[in-house]
């Protein structure tokens, strides 16, 4: 291969790499492999899927080594028929920077109120317990006994989905 051809090939490959978003995985066939799979599922559902639907899914390994996989789908009609106000408490619980930090730290392995209270800027023990109660009441945490807290397995991927959706 001549130098000119090699440079042209390197430029082509560099351009392709620069176009890729390094934050999003490239899995399956094509850029919209998950969307195409959802469309097929909706078509197979017949009339129930006529107005479309949404799907979220994830397979994650936490810094602790714990692994979680989850998926959930809903038909558009069912989402519009439901009372969106029912989600307000869940969203409100996530609407405080300290609570988001506590969730991140809990997913990272700090599980007790004492460990969380030792974090710089997290607040007093009383404030920590207030935030933990808010997160527990909304279902983002549950008490695992002896002052330990954890994100329920069925909430790990949904939490990460919400964080992903909130990115600018």
TrEMBL record:
It comes from the Bacteria. SUPFAM superfamilies: Winged helix' DNA-binding domain. SMART domains: HTH_ARSR (SM00418). CDD domains: HTH_ARSR (cd00090). GO terms for molecular function: DNA-binding transcription factor activity. Residues 89-162 form the HTH arsR-type domain. InterPro entries: ArsR-like_HTH, HTH_ArsR_DNA-bd_dom, WH-like_DNA-bd_sf, WH_DNA-bd_sf. Gene3D superfamilies: Winged helix-like DNA-binding domain superfamily/Winged helix DNA-binding domain (1.10.10.10). This is HTH arsR-type domain-containing protein. It comes from Streptomyces filamentosus NRRL 15998.
């Amino acid at each position: 291969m001549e130098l000119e051809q090699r440079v042209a090939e390197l430029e082509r490959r560099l351009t392709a790499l620069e176009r890729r978003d390094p934050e999003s995985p490239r899995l399956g066939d094509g850029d919209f492999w998950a969307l195409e799979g959802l469309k097929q599922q909706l078509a197979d559902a017949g009339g129930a899927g006529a107005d479309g639907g949404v799907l979220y899914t994830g397979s994650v390994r936490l810094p602790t080594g714990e692994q979680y996989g989850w998926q959930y789908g809903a038909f558009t009609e069912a989402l519009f028929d439901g009372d969106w106000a029912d989600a307000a408490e869940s969203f409100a619980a996530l609407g405080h920077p300290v609570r988001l930090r506590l969730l991140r730290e809990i997913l990272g392995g700090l599980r007790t109120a004492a460990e969380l209270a030792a974090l710089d800027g997290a607040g007093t023990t009383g404030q920590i317990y207030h935030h933990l109660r808010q997160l527990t009441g909304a279902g983002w945490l549950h008490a695992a006994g002896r002052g330990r807290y954890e994100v329920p397995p069925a909430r790990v991927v949904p939490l990460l989905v919400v964080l992903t959706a909130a990115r600018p």
